[in-house]
Design goal:
2 domains
Length: about 375
């Protein structure tokens, strides 16, 4: 695969598995998706417990025992489990269809006694995000005493939220499920900051390379970074709109106290958008900087070649004149230097004088001096690095 093909492969491809014209609410799981793993965390101000659930029916004895229950489902490979959970929590089939079709943009929808919130979370490996960036859909259902989350695969950015629940840190165990919704959305939003930090480091490296004689793959690497920034923007921009809906709409499931915290999460998305726009402008400018550097380098090479060719032009005239086959015996004006003892040194000296005079004239014009100063600056910059 070439660099250009790798750059283009970062485009997020979507594929609907339901046939066109299928009834609304049709659930078709991705064959490559892992089987669901269910984990429930039930908590209140006094205590909290974490339980691994084997089947959805086992949740009957868990939900309602404490003020808030968080059911986390990791993996969407079994539609039977999803359908059973939908019946248990009275979830709308259109929302369950959006859970399975994992190409949704961040949004919020209200279905009577529960809210459906969809967001996108960056995938990570060993603490660093994947390059090129990959995101996965996180679907959240908010009820009066439960939070139900669906993830495409195991692994997420919610470990800090789980620790806050188990260690009783902050106000999460003193609040309702709407505050847990805020905590999850805030964790997803903050997960994009390390992504942009790494992208900022890559921008600095690419900028330094663009100012020097970089390799031929620089444009492809800049293009891959621009595609990644665009992928982040596709997640953050609708996330901002989704948070704005949660803040503005008067839903009975979200309290006024929680809306204050959602406004803080909304501010984080504004910061992300500011960083994104800045990085996208810098990445766009890097292409122009790289092309200008390459053009300047080409002009330097052409200047050197032009100077060499210009110096040899009069030397070629001199050697051409003395290379003509005139008979010196026929006339005293036919190449008298051929019979002169110092004719050859005279010709060489004349050529050296012409070449030296032209070099001196080039230097007085500033052509050679400017080229030399530029090379010394570049050499000093490399030595400092």
């Amino acid at each position: 695969m070439t660099d250009t093909e790798r750059a283009g492969s970062s485009i997020r491809r979507t594929r609907r598995r339901a046939a066109p014209g299928a009834p609304p609410g049709t659930l078709i799981a991705d064959p490559a998706s892992p089987r669901p793993r269910i984990r429930a965390i039930a908590y209140g101000e006094a205590s909290a417990e974490s339980i691994d659930i084997e089947t959805p029916e086992a949740l009957d004895g868990v939900v309602g025992r404490r003020p808030v229950t968080w059911i986390d489902v990791q993996g969407l490979g079994d539609t039977g489990v999803l359908t059973a959970l939908g019946r248990l929590f009275n979830l709308h089939m259109l929302a369950l269809e959006d859970v399975v079709n994992v190409h949704q943009r961040p949004k919020v929808e209200e279905y009577g006694d529960h809210l459906f919130v969809c967001t996108r979370m960056p995938q990570t490996k060993d603490g660093r995000h994947l390059v090129p960036l990959k995101t996965e859909q996180v679907s959240i259902f908010l009820g009066r005493d439960f939070i139900l989350t669906f993830q495409e695969r195991p692994g997420d950015c919610f470990d800090s939220v789980r620790r806050r629940i188990t260690e009783n840190r902050g106000r999460i165990r003193k609040s309702g499920p709407d505050y847990l919704l805020y905590a999850l959305l805030d964790a997803v939003t903050d997960a994009f900051f390390p992504v942009l930090e790494q992208d900022g480091e890559r921008l600095e490296t690419l900028e330094a390379e663009a100012m020097e004689d970089a390799g031929d793959d620089l444009n492809a690497r800049i293009h891959r970074l621009k595609r990644e920034l665009l992928a982040v923007r596709r997640c953050v921009w609708p996330q901002r709109e989704m948070l704005n809906v949660l803040i503005r709409d008067d839903s009975a499931l979200v309290s006024d106290q929680t809306r204050v915290f959602l406004r803080d999460c909304f501010d984080h998305t504004i910061q992300l958008m500011d960083l994104l726009e800045t990085y996208r402008e810098v990445a766009s400018d890097l292409v122009d900087i790289h092309l200008s550097t390459v053009s300047k380098r080409l002009n330097e090479v052409m200047m050197v070649l032009t100077i060499i060719a210009t110096i040899f032009m009069p030397l070629t005239v001199i050697t051409g004149i003395y290379g003509m086959n005139f008979d010196a015996d026929a006339s005293p004006w036919n190449m008298p230097e051929l019979r002169w003892a110092y004719g050859y040194p005279f010709a060489l000296g004349l050529m050296l004088a012409v070449a030296g005079g032209m070099l001196l004239w080039f230097r007085r014009r500033g052509w050679l001096g400017r080229l030399g100063r530029h090379r010394r600056r570049r050499g000093g910059g490399r030595a400092a690095e």
